[in-house]
Design goal:
The protein is α/β, with parallel strands linked by helices. The protein contains eleven helices and nine strands. Bound molecules: phosphoric acid mono(formamide)ester.
Length: 307
């Protein structure tokens, strides 16, 4: 089946058959990552520019490795040290880079909609690597891939996303993707960190961690994004940990084994304790490994190349 999409801007509205196609393609690339020589010639001659206007460890390295494993040519752009400091706009920056004959752009930006904007002013394929509080579609895809690997079909699987929902692009991509795959999705956190119209997305809302844990099979824990909060949304990080932190003691009250996920970076001892993050029920490092395969699949499918 030929993939007809040109951009990946978010998971909202992406049909199940397209998600399945990306996930199945990622399975093929995931197998390549276990080989002694982790490289295929699939994107030879394709040039990708990684435009990162915000900090990143996992996503930037994961995309870079995915591009290298596919034999693409790649260029990394960081906002610091660029001509943005001389007043150049995003549009001019992107159009000048495109004038050097590139094919695909991976963009992380603090402004929601920056990838959509680039898709309107460039001819290249655009992949959203996280835009403000909007979406982080490859994170959503790698979370879904990793969860399916663990539990199989996601129909009826109960996932609660706990923490700073209001500032989380990971939450939005997970909600859209998981619901399309048939999971039952809930969010939980302080009322000040949950958008008011959350139930309109068809997710349950819990303000009590005990009720959320009673509901859930899978816990996806999010970081408190202090850098995006314009005012205090709870009294202190210690109080947040006491009321919403995922601890071994809190989980031991239930007669079930929760699957633990976190997109990273983790603030250990705030939203998630070390003994839970590093327990045998944690998928956190598997999520990171699978992220490379997901990004290889997305790059390959959007390139329009056929193997
Ligand atoms: N999960 C994630 O996006 O991590 P980075 O910010 O390190 O890329």
């Amino acid at each position: 089946m030929k993939f007809l999409k040109k951009h990946l801007l978010g998971l909202e509205g992406v049909p199940k058959e397209d998600l399945e196609h990306i996930l199945e393609t990622a399975k093929y690339f995931r197998e390549i990552l276990d080989r002694p020589i982790k490289k295929v010639p699939t994107l030879t001659g394709v040039t990708v520019v990684n435009l990162f206007f915000e900090a990143s460890t996992r996503t930037r390295i994961s995309f870079e490795l995915a591009e290298k494993r596919l034999s693409a040519d790649l260029v990394n752009f960081s906002a610091s040290g660029s001509s943005l400091s001389k007043g150049e706009t995003l549009k001019d920056t992107a159009r000048n880079i495109e004038a050097m004959m590139i094919d695909m752009v991976v963009i992380r930006h603090s402004s929601p909609g920056a990838p959509l904007f680039l898709s309107r002013v460039l001819k290249s394929s655009i992949i959203n690597a996280g835009d403000g509080c909007h979406e982080h579609p490859t994170q959503g895809l790698l979370d879904i891939y990793t969860l399916r690997e663990k539990v199989g079909d996601l129909s009826g699987v109960k996932v609660v996303i706990i923490g700073d929902i209001a500032h989380s692009r990971v939450a939005m991509s997970n909600i859209h993707g998981l619901k399309t795959m048939g999971a039952e999705v809930a969010v939980c956190g302080p009322a000040t960190l949950i958008p008011v119209e959350m139930d309109k997305l068809g997710v349950k809302v819990f303000y009590s961690i005990d009720e959320a844990l009673e509901f859930a099979d899978v816990i996806n824990v999010l970081r408190i994004q202090l850098e995006r909060q314009k005012k205090a949304t709870f009294p202190s990080l210690r109080e947040y940990h006491d009321i919403f932190g995922i601890t071994k003691e809190r989980l031991s009250k239930y007669k079930k084994e929760f699957v633990i996920m976190h997109p990273g970076p983790i603030n250990r001892g705030i939203e998630l304790d070390t003994d839970v993050a590093d327990s045998k029920h944690s998928l956190i490092l598997r999520q990171v490994t699978n992220g490379v395969a997901i990004r290889m699949a997305v790059l390959y499918l959007l390139s329009g190349r056929e193997i």
